């Protein structure tokens, strides 16, 4: 696998467009399209929220069949908009399919933004010809910008990998920033590849990779109504072989991993990027449960913000997580400094610890000492700005 | 039932003392005792955290037998202190029992404060004679102050009630403020009554009342290592009759309810006190699950702080709670203003809504529309000050 600069525009066989449609705000890209030259296999992972947006319903219905395009709008989530909202999504995708000369149901849609408002459908329908007209390969770099809400920078990652069928490319983009929680981090993410992967393998591998990436980051524990991650891979008569799927998976993992890093780096108001590693859990589920609880604890996250080596809060979060934890087996480290070893608090060099906690990025290691299962979560701190951003983001 | 002013000092048959012991800070009450004139039946509810403090272990072991006294220290949690911490708690309670001429195991202990530090046992042991010497009925009013950590005001409630056995009194105190989450809100709470209730009824009623009070409030979703709620009632040859237990329960409910209100009112950095009512759930568990998710959502709580009628975040939290929720049945109100009715967003008077959200106290009503189960949670907003307090509370 080789890391590539840039993003979607690296992958042959796709074109892109992004326009200012004035959906809720002026002078910003808010409506965009990712279009494959040929029909693709698609796989999707969606919010598990019982209140889910109209475009999520539409994607769930269509992701099993071949897909040509994805249209995406920002600033309005088209959630809690009932049957009208669903019919808006139907009409918009249908219009896009028509503009592309594609199958009606081969267009997917994703939306992000405020909940409870109808999309300005007429305005968007009139914009669709322009969206179709301005498609180009180079426009790939516009997509990450067009899908942002409170993100402070666009997010892309790309890689290439070799198989006996040839060299392929894979790239992705994501938006996140608020409402990021495991089981889907709130985000939209779109991954494309020119590597032909059969539908069944695409489903399995995408699910596995999402669980180890987007479902292992947490910012505020809230799960959105719109979480959508989609991957497109060209439908083909000749798919890469089973034994070469590992190369594809490695590249996909890299792309998703990079997007995760960027999402957590760009968490609303975050000043810290913290990797929480848990080891020594009795089961894999325990490892994940404990890692999530530590990564999600508001008290742990405010301690990170305050540069406070408050391992007691970490122990406490592991203790209430539901995972099997015993005080006398528990060890806690920040970077490689042991703070608690098998239940015994240790003296540590406060100055050195302060220098670690003053860094933008550091890691926490929790050794449960009861088994051999491991898990990793990425998290951020919770700062004044997190509160500010979320108190001021109006309905 | 009659509401009484004041707190613990209202209840005959108990004496109290509180001293400045310099456990971690100077010039503050940090060590106190609640002593019954005679042996009492006790009931206790404790943290479900797998990492629990030494005094929690001690209380769990002793709460089944008759109890004479409870000693409490603030500023140091005696948690993550291993066998030494447990032996410290043993020694301190034993010294107190000796000073009172009571049974060794009839003294309970509770601690609150930072995790991972040994108590200054020698200092505390030397202070115990003074603690025993200064016991008086009037000192009851000192206890709420002596148990505070980041609380900004002491919390007490008292009531009286009549039964055929005579008039009785009940009073309680609590400390909370940070780390407040359901399944036990992090707190210490001590309830005393002169009403003789048999051990079995005391256990049952106390558990039920705690579930409807301390386990139904949430501030930050973190559950502490030290949560302890204890009730004492005189052991007697003559207990109030089964048919009169409802009077006792009503008074206990009132006292716990008042303490809950005060805890949420005093939530770290809180500017809002919000009652979350859920109705129309299919099951009681669903009602509680949905109410807790809404009350605990960081995005909902920052919206409260920002006076933002962001019902979308409320719908979103109900949706991811795990409770059965259907968009087309869901209605959401703030006070009596409908924002969403059976899945349809409604127009509302923004000025009037702003006047509601500007108040210190308001309520949110979520009607799931799928059944008849109800639940209530009390919650606060999350403000800049919450972050400040928790970023600066050092290990």
Care to describe what's here?
- 2 copies of one chain form a homodimer.
- With 395 residues, chain A is an alpha+beta fold.
- Helices cover 32% and strands 27% of the residues of chain A.
- The first copy, chain A, has 11 helices and 16 strands.
- In chain A, the strands form 2 sheets. In chain A, strands 1, 2, 3, 4, 5, 6, 7, 8 and 10 form a 9-stranded mixed sheet that branches.
- Chain A starts with a strand and ends with a helix.
- Residues 179-185 of chain A have low confidence and may be disordered.
- Chains A and B meet through helix 8, helix 9, strand 14 and helix 11 of A and helix 8, helix 9, strand 14 and helix 11 of B.
Offer a concise description of the structure:
Two copies of one chain form a homodimer. The first copy, chain A, has 395 residues and is α+β, with helices and mostly antiparallel strands.
Outline the fold blueprint.
The structure is a homodimer of 395-residue chains.
Chain A: E1 2-4, E2 14-19, E3 31-46, H1 54-62, E4 67-73, H2 82-100, E5 107-111, H3 121-133, H4 143-146, E6 155-163, E7 166-175, E8 188-193, H5 199-211, E9 217-218, E10 228-234, H6 245-265, E11 273-281, H7 284-296, H8 298-305, H9 311-320, E12 331-334, E13 337-341, E14 344-345, H10 350-357, E15 361-367, E16 373-380, H11 384-392
Parallel strand pairs in A: 4-5, 8-10, 9-16, 11-15
Antiparallel strand pairs in A: 1-6, 2-3, 3-4, 3-10, 6-7, 7-8, 11-16, 12-13, 12-15, 13-14
Helix pairs in contact in A: 1-2, 2-3, 5-6, 7-9
């Amino acid at each position: 696998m080789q890391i590539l600069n840039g993003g979607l525009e690296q992958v042959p066989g796709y074109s892109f467009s992004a326009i200012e449609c004035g959906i809720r705000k002026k002078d910003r890209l808010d409506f965009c399209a990712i279009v494959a030259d040929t029909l693709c296999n698609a796989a999707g992972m969606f919010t598990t929220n019982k209140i889910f947006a109209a475009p999520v319903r539409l994607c769930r219905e269509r992701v099993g069949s071949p897909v040509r395009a994805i249209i995406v709008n920002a600033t309005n989530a088209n959630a809690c908009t009932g049957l009208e909202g669903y019919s808006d999504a139907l009409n918009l995708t249908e219009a896009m399919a028509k503009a592309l000369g594609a199958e009606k149901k081969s267009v997917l849609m994703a939306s992000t933004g405020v909940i409870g408002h109808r999309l300005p459908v007429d305005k968007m329908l009139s914009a669709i010809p322009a969206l179709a007209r301005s498609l180009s390969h180079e426009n790939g770099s516009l997509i990450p910008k067009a899908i942002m809400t409170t993100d402070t920078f666009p997010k892309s990652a790309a890689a290439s990998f070799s198989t006996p069928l040839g060299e392929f490319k894979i790239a992705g983009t994501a938006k996140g920033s608020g409402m990021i929680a495991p089981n889907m981090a709130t985000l939209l993410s779109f991954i494309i590849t020119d590597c032909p992967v059969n539908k069944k393998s695409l489903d399995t591998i995408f699910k596995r990779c999402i669980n180890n990436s987007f479902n292992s980051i947490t910012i505020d524990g809230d799960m959105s109504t719109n979480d959508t991650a989609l991957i497109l891979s060209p439908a083909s008569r000749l798919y890469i072989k089973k034994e070469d799927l590992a190369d594809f998976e490695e590249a996909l993992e890299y792309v998703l991993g990079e997007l995760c890093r960027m999402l957590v780096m760009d968490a609303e108001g975050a000043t810290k990027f913290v990797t929480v590693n848990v080891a020594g859990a009795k089961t894999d589920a325990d490892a994940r449960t404990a890692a999530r609880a530590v990564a999600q604890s508001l008290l742990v996250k405010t301690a990170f913000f305050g540069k406070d080596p408050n391992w007691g809060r970490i122990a406490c979060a592991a203790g209430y997580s539901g995972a099997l934890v015993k005080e006398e087996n528990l060890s806690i480290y920040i970077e490689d400094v042991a703070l608690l070893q098998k239940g015994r608090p240790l003296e540590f060099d406060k100055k050195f610890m302060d220098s670690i906690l003053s860094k933008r990025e550091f890691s926490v290691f929790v050794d449960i000492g009861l088994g051999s299962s491991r898990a990793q979560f990425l998290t951020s701190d919770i700062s004044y700005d997190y509160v500010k951003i979320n108190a001021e983001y109006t309905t």
